[in-house]
Amino acid sequence: MRVYMAFAALMLVVETTQSMPCAPQEFTDGIVCVCNDTYCDTLEDVEPTGENDFVAVSSSKSGMRFAVSKGEFTKVAPISLDYDRNEPIVILRPKRSFWDSIIGIFESKNATIKVDRSITYQEIVGFGGALTGSASWNLDQLTPALQNHVYRSFYSKDKGIAYNMLRLTIGGSDFDFEPWAYNEFPENDASLSNFTKLDPRDARKVEQIKQLMEISNNKNIKFYGTAWSPPKWMKTNNAWTGPSALKLEYYQTWADYHLKWLELMDQAGLNMWGISTGNEPINGVIGFLIIKFLSLGWIPQTQAKWLAENFGPTLRNSKYKNILIMGPEDQRIVLPNWLDIMESTVKGSTSYLDGISLHWYWDFFIPASFLDKSHDQFEGKIIINTESSAGSFPLQRHMPILGDWGRAEQYLNDFMSDFQHHLNGWIDWNLILDEQGGPNYVQNFVDAPIIRANDSTLIYKQPLFYAIGHFSRFMQPGSVRVEASSSERNVKTAAFKQPDGSIALVVHNREYTTVNLEVEDSVRGTIKLSLPGKSIHTIIYK
Ligand SMILES: *[C@@H]1O[C@H](CO)[C@@H](O)[C@H](O)[C@H]1NC(C)=O
Ligand SMILES: *[C@@H]1O[C@H](CO)[C@@H](O)[C@H](O)[C@H]1NC(C)=O
Ligand SMILES: *[C@@H]1O[C@H](CO)[C@@H](O)[C@H](O)[C@H]1NC(C)=O
Ligand SMILES: *[C@@H]1O[C@H](CO)[C@@H](O)[C@H](O)[C@H]1NC(C)=O
């Protein structure tokens, strides 16, 4: 419960909120929120009540984490909320870096954001993360109470960040203790005679997911499956990694393999919403030069044939005909040529694709406009980012950086640009990793929104968790992006009309300095907010 102080000459709204605040801990690079068995922060009570009310949820480099403020729109005399002077919600102020102080001596900036809900764009499918082998194992190191905190933090709609999607690996990925697939033995077994029950690792994931749905009270999760590699005997190189292709004689077997997995998951109680044509096909063509984990190489020509003659028909003629098929599940540099080449190789092949799945890793030098071309050319197909993680590139720290705001900003920058370019949803990578960023069988360590502390009695919620939550919590499936534009290059914005009609306006202040923001909504009028440097806000109003 927080009570805001009133300052002379400023009309501050005194409000209380039921959220459990962040229990902050400062590391060298910034602040994390700590959860233990008995305590974990939540985000609650963020519904505006009256027609003119707004609720602002704020996080910042300086330590705000889902701080909730309330106020009123007015066309006559705008109310100012000054977060910077509102000390009680700034939980901790880490020492300013030299650079922050230098920049900080310049005066604050002004910005205006205009929102027009009558201009609408794409519909949102949702947000989620991945229950990899490593995420599943990390969860199992925690007490049941902490596991539940993780589930609620991600999937609860009224306490957490309301994820509604979950990606699963079909067989292994690099975030496992070893590469694996179903039916590794017997070899050359085209009938997949040994693919008769779920691997114990998958059976455990199913149990965890059932607990997740129960504890987060979220029964509408879109499950999405991706395979990294078939058993080695189906591949031309008979190895997990390296240059590979699917042997022609196993094209149908590999389609049947996916169907078997769908059947076994279904029998275990999980119905998939979507399935991929396979993880990062380029890794098995050229990527293996730097990427050492399991892969299967495809070029668009071979994938078109497999999709149109095997995978597509096999699924469409099965009980699972309504499942969404997504591809090419690689970096967006392959767009839009990949689908073009598929279509010109086998006419009609791309009609089996319901959506375009992409990974974010090279986004910093491939502009988001790549999405436009594919959207325009393949109208009707949704575009989902199906994997993202920070710290995978050369010169980056290949591990979690506890408290780092910069990685949260990387995500925010991508969200802001991609949602302006037709993106419908976002699935992040591992839900939870250890302090090293693993386990990973090829030491491909990366960051994650939640990190398990070495001794397993605590979890750390990274700034990244909050950055994602500023979008995911307020962009439920069926939300529609509406027009919002900012007068300042470093004040990024995106606005969404939620299914209940209310507006969620996300504002990212990338400046080091305070920004005095005026929001002009074409229906509601004006509000003024003072946004601290390096902060992210979601403003909700009817
Ligand atoms: C759990 O965290 C809360 C909030 O930080 C703290 O008050 C409590 O003492 C912690 N419990 C244990 C057992 O450490
Ligand atoms: C911001 O706006 C105020 C008036 O609203 C004005 O006094 C001030 O000079 C402006 N600052 C900048 C940097 O433009
Ligand atoms: C079937 O697979 C299991 C491992 O999943 C293996 O232990 C067993 O040997 C396989 N059976 C045959 C006949 O190869
Ligand atoms: C956790 O373990 C890793 C090694 O896996 C080590 O580098 C790190 O310093 C440990 N963290 C703490 C807080 O002890």
UniProtKB/TrEMBL annotation:
Top-rank taxon, per record: Eukaryota
Chemical reaction(s) catalysed: a beta-D-glucosyl-(1<->1')-N-acylsphing-4-enine + H2O = an N-acylsphing-4-enine + D-glucose
Entry-linked InterPro entries: GH, GH30_C, Glyco_hydro_30, Glyco_hydro_30_TIM-barrel
Enzyme class: hydrolase
Pfam families assigned: Glyco_hydro_30, Glyco_hydro_30C
Keywords assigned: Glycosidase, Hydrolase, Lipid metabolism, Signal, Sphingolipid metabolism
Record GO cellular component, one term: membrane
Domain Glycosyl hydrolase family 30 TIM-barrel: 124-475
One annotated GO biological process: glucosylceramide catabolic process
Domain Glycosyl hydrolase family 30 beta sandwich: 478-539
EC numbers, comma separated: 3.2.1.45
Signal sequence segment: 1-19
MF term (GO), any: glucosylceramidase activity
Family, similarity comment: Belongs to the glycosyl hydrolase 30 family.
Protein name as annotated: Glucosylceramidase
Natural source organism: Hermetia illucens
